[in-house]
């Protein structure tokens, strides 16, 4: 699994299979990366991760990155100047929540309605997510502050 990380103030990428870290631009987060097939083989295969974990020490910019991605999706138009495709603008919907926002909820629709779309009905939220199910980006911030006993967060991470 390829994982972008924030370390020493720089955004980088690391993998369980690839130990090399490199600095990447935030527009490259969603681009396919290369990943080794095995520790003994040096052949590379394209890797298009469905889940990205951004790790880093406190104050390194993880929340700023998450908020910036959501802001750019909602307030900017894609100019085609992104360093690579896909960029944050290629998603139909971007949903930004903290892990704590998911606590106590059993379904994502109700959590989104209660925290983001209070004027919408749960049925409207369900319909919107269903219409773009494979093209919705969930940005879940502050995992470390809300992961304990968080069934919905676990289900989202596992793709349920």
From TrEMBL:
NACHT domain location is 50-160
One Pfam family linked to the record: NACHT
| Transmembrane spans | none
Record-given protein name:
NACHT domain-containing protein
- Which organism does this record belong to? Capitella teleta (Polychaete worm)
Organism taxonomic ancestry: Eukaryota, Metazoa, Spiralia, Lophotrochozoa, Annelida
């Amino acid at each position: 699994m390829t994982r972008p990380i924030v370390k020493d103030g720089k955004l980088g990428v690391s993998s369980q299979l690839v130990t090399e870290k490199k600095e990447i631009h935030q527009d490259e987060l969603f681009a396919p990366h290369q990943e080794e097939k095995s520790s003994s083989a040096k052949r590379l295969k394209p890797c298009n991760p469905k889940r990205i974990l951004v790790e880093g020490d406190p104050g390194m910019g993880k929340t700023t990155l998450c908020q910036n991605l959501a802001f750019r999706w909602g307030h900017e138009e894609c100019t085609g100047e992104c360093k690579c495709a896909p960029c944050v603008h290629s998603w139909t919907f971007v949903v930004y929540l903290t892990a704590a926002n998911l606590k106590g909820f059993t379904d994502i629709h109700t959590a989104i309605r209660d925290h983001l779309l209070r004027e919408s009905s749960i049925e409207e939220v369900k319909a919107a997510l269903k219409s773009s199910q494979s093209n919705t980006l969930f940005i879940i911030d502050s995992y470390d502050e809300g992961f304990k006993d968080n069934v919905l967060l676990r289900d989202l991470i596992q793709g349920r």
